[in-house]
Design a protein that fits this description.
Layout lengths: L9 E5 L4 E5 L3 E6 L7 E3 L10 E6 L5 E6 L6 E6 L3 E8 L12 E20 L2 H4 L4 E6 L2 E6 L2 E7 L15 E3 L2 E9 L3 E8 L9 H20 L8 H13 L1 E2 L4 E2 L5 E4 L7 E3 L3 E2 H13 L3 H17 L11 E2 L10 E2 L13 E2 L10 H15 L6 H17 L18 H21 L5 H18 L1 E2 L4 E2 L14 H4 L8 H13 L1 E2 L2 E2 L17 E2 H13 L3 H12 L11 E2 L5 E2 L5 H19 L5 H10 L21
Antiparallel strand pairs: 1-2, 2-3, 3-4, 3-5, 5-9, 6-7, 7-8, 8-9, 9-14, 9-15, 10-11, 11-12, 12-15, 13-14, 16-17, 18-19, 20-21, 22-23, 24-25, 26-27, 28-29, 29-30
Length: about 650
């Protein structure tokens, strides 16, 4: 267990086609190439012995380590502090652009800024998740090449100062089928290595060339960050989340992966270990709201094109015109398999690649997709005639198929149900489709869509509402609460001051909220087909902030948002979940978490700016009265407001 860093002890670097994780001890322990969803080259995060790693750190054990990003960039600096000196490893990936390429570079620049420091470097790749053997060819003192079939990794030496023994000159040393470098650097010395995929020949890289790459990469991120229109209270936090979303975007298609990792557990030692290196229609659609909220219209438009391409390719199977997830290139060959030769993160097995949930029926994705296209249209990104025709066919399917059982947003494997959230999002899909048709004068079967939309509304209000609980519940065969329903007021299905919603919010606060942390649902009360438990869901915690703010609880929303910042890692990154003692759980970092943070910040800023002096006390009084007779059925009225409020 001690061979595994904590999930949160990592920073993310990337080039907009793939990404890598660097631990606080200087270990590169996750990297796939040439794409996010390609087989790994380094994966010691999933098996310390067989996964492969590239490690650079002080030779002595007694050191302090710190990590930071260079301001407004995705350039990661890992600092090592000892009594004798201060050294740094600067990690970054030069951005490769929008054309798919096999060439990807990880620059690992090593320098000492004070005193002296002895470093040890190890490069031990393991191709194809550790399943493919490789050869090592140490060609010269300038570098080496690892080869496994048609894949290769070239190591280029940086500068004239080479870590080798106690000398300040020399070359790389083969150790088994890997490389080892050990040496002492003095203040001002610069060395390191460039790791490159794509079949390049080894060549010495001059420090000036590396500095030029560093400046170019820094300039890209600073200019991109400068395009943000956000001027709210949490600029640094929001900017880091935005850059994290950008790092998880595959530039050639505009698709956003849910996370750059696979197999990281939702419970250490458990079986909830999924592959998230794919594009979920849901996650990526919700990111459009965040991106447009920050002024990133190009990224939102690129995903809109990707999404409409998927609609165009569809054949209208039972799962509907859309799959719930795809690879970043739009293909959907996501056969799930277990990598039984890997131990998993801290013995969390099985390690899965692919995703068996890809063929599930999840009706909510149509609501998220239409909500994204609607806000994009409001921002001026309108659909073509062909696009509208395809969207009409999709909405026709939703209007006919919304009343079927499904697996739901959380991809449970306990069997299909009539999930309330899925029904709500079908309502959103039809509502946004109707609005788009009317707004732009497009032809559409509005009567049929309206009838279906209204039928969904009535069913949710009748069967999704549990009078005994005084809350909307997960589905019509249970009284279990579900945090996904926090989106009901956020997307406009219910008014945020509706007594039925306020009662639901209070029930969630009592049952699903632990301090600022929010559970998705209680798996003990609602079996999901999997063993074990899980942590709180970071996405839901930020949804909770958003819902609180819209319902007028600004003081509580602001405090909850502030508490959530304390659960971020040292770089401001979030995984999928947070454990009881604040540890990050699940794949890391998670797009869902960061897009929800951005949206919560934007809404909370707006609500605070409006200074809800009247609404806040009014709603608090309303919440106090929820225990009174008549509260559960909403027959009482909010004091100070009209009978129809």
């Amino acid at each position: 267990m001690t061979d595994y860093p904590s999930i949160e002890d990592h920073g993310l670097i990337g080039d907009l086609q793939t990404a890598a994780l660097i631990a606080t001890d200087g270990t590169l322990d996750w990297f796939c190439a040439p794409r996010f969803d390609s087989p790994s080259i380094f994966a010691s995060l999933l098996d310390a012995e067989r996964g492969g790693h590239c490690r650079i750190r002080p030779t002595v054990d007694d050191y302090v380590t710190r990590q930071l990003y260079l301001p407004d960039t995705a350039i990661l600096v890992t600092r090592f502090l000892t009594d004798d000196g201060v050294g740094e490893v600067v990690d970054f990936m030069p951005v490769v652009g929008t054309e798919p390429t096999a060439r990807h570079r990880i620059v690992r620049l090593v320098r000492v800024v004070r005193g002296t420091m002895e470093f040890t470097g190890e490069i031990q790749p393991r191709f194809d998740y550790g399943r493919a053997g490789h050869t090592l060819e140490l060609l010269s003192e300038d570098g080496a090449v690892f080869t496994a079939g048609d894949q290769s990794l070239t190591v280029h030496r940086i500068g004239d100062v080479v870590m080798h023994g106690d000398q300040r000159a020399g070359g790389m040393v083969a150790e088994g089928d890997g490389l080892r470098l050990t040496g002492t650097l003095h203040e001002g010395d610069v060395t390191g290595a460039v790791l490159e995929t794509g079949g390049a020949a080894p060549a010495r890289v001059a420090p000036d060339e590396v500095e030029a790459l560093l400046r170019e990469t820094s300039r890209f991120w600073r200019e991109w960050n400068g395009r943000s229109t956000y001027r709210g209270r949490w600029r640094e936090t929001v900017a880091r989340s935005a850059m994290t979303l950008k790092l998880m975007t595959y530039a050639p298609t505009g698709a956003l992966v849910a996370a750059p990792t696979a197999g990281l557990p939702e419970q250490v030692g458990g079986e909830r270990n999924w592959d998230y290196r794919y594009t979920w229609v849901r996650d990526a659609s919700l990111s459009v709201h965040a991106l447009l909220g920050l002024g990133y219209t190009e990224e939102a438009a690129a995903f809109g094109v990707w999404l409409m391409d998927r609609v165009h390719e569809s054949v209208g199977e039972r799962s509907g015109p859309l799959k719930i997830m795809y690879r970043v290139d739009g293909t959907c060959d996501l056969v799930e398999e277990s990598l039984d030769h890997l131990d998993g993160y801290k013995a969390s097995r099985p390690v899965r690649i692919g995703n068996g949930a890809s063929d599930q029926v999840q009706l909510d994705i149509y609501g998220e997709a239409l909500a994204a296209l609607f806000v994009a249209a409001e921002a001026g990104l309108e659909l073509s005639h062909a696009g509208w025709s395809q969207l009409t066919a999709l909405l026709d399917w939703v209007s006919e198929q919304w009343d079927q059982p499904e697996e739901g947003i959380w991809e449970t494997r306990g069997g299909p149900q009539n999930f309330t959230y899925g029904r709500v999002m079908c309502w959103i899909a039809l509502d946004r489709g109707i609005r788009l048709a009317r707004l732009h004068g497009r032809p559409a079967p509005l009567d049929a869509w309206t009838q279906a939309r209204d039928a969904i509304y009535r069913q949710v209000m009748e069967r999704g509402w549990d009078g005994g609980r005084g809350a909307f519940v997960q589905h019509d065969r249970t009284d279990v609460l579900d945090a996904s329903l926090l989106l009901m007021p956020i997307l406009g299905f219910v008014a945020p001051l509706d007594p039925m919603w306020l009662s639901t919010l209070r029930a969630m606060k009592d049952e699903l909220v632990s301090d600022s942390l929010v559970y998705r649902y209680n798996p003990a009360a609602s079996p999901d087909g999997l063993a074990g438990s899980e942590g709180t869901f970071t996405l839901c915690s930020f949804f909770y902030v958003d819902a609180l703010a819209r319902s007028g609880f600004l003081e509580e929303a602001e405090l909850t948002f502030g508490k959530m910042h304390t659960y971020a890692n040292h770089l401001g990154l979030y995984a999928e979940e947070i454990g009881l003692t604040g540890e990050q759980l699940g794949n890391f970092p998670q797009a869902f978490s960061h897009l929800a943070l951005i949206n919560a910040a934007i809404v909370l800023d707006r609500q605070l700016d409006q200074e809800q002096d009247l609404v806040g006390p009014t709603v608090r009084e309303a919440m106090r009265r929820l225990d009174e007779p008549g509260a559960a059925d909403g027959s009482w009225r909010v004091p100070g407001m009209g009978d129809g409020a």
